[in-house]
Amino acid sequence: MFFDMSPLKLATLVVLAVLVFGPGKVPEIIQNVSAFIRKVRAISESAKQDIRSELGPEFRDFEFEDLHPKTFVRKHMLDADGLGLDEIRSALDPREEFAQVADAVRESAEEARTSTVEAGRVSVAKAEQPDLAARPAFDPDAT
User: Fold this and answer.
1) DSSP 8-state code for residue 140
2) What are the Cα distances from residue 78, in Å, to 45, 70, 73, 75?
3) So where are the chain's domains?
4) CA nearest to 73, candidates 85, 62, 86
5) Better pLDDT: 65 or 2
């Protein structure tokens, strides 16, 4: 909490404390606040130790920091053991599927070319175009 404060912020807090409480009371207030923070930390550590002892030996390596969402994601998603980002990216990468589709299209085009060759001649007849008027109109509301 106080460790990530810049010197300017800390100086501002000291000046405000001197102005609000007076120069005689500031050391006493600092002692009271630091004693309170020490008590809260001691209670927190005691509670952590109690929880660890109640969980048993199978949770010996349990860390409370692992419950933080960022730490949880970093530990379970980005580890080499678990499903990492490389596996997710490769699973979501459509390039392999596109390559398979392109190969299938090339093969069907090659088959169509070879099937039209008859006794050394190439058939140049156009494929029949479907009659667009015979098709029913598209209705987006129809399900």
Assistant:
1) T
2) 29, 11, 7, 6
3) 1-62, 63-112
4) 85
5) 65
- Indicate yes or no: pTM above 0.70: no
The whole-angstrom separation of Cα 87 and Cα 93 is 10
Rounded Cα gap, residues 92 and 83, in angstroms: 13
Residue 7: how many CA atoms within 13 Å on its side-chain side? 0
In the numeric block, the tokens 């596996």 are attached to: 87
Question: Bridge-partner residues for 123, per DSSP?
Answer: none
CB 76 within 8 A of CB 68: no
pLDDT digits (tens, 9 = 90+) for 56-97: 787 777 777 777 888 877 776 665 555 566 677 777 778 888
Burial 48-86 (b: 16+ CB within 10 A, else e): eeeeeeeeeeeeeeeeeeeeeeeeeeeeeeeeeeeeeee
Give me the amino acid identity at 67.
L
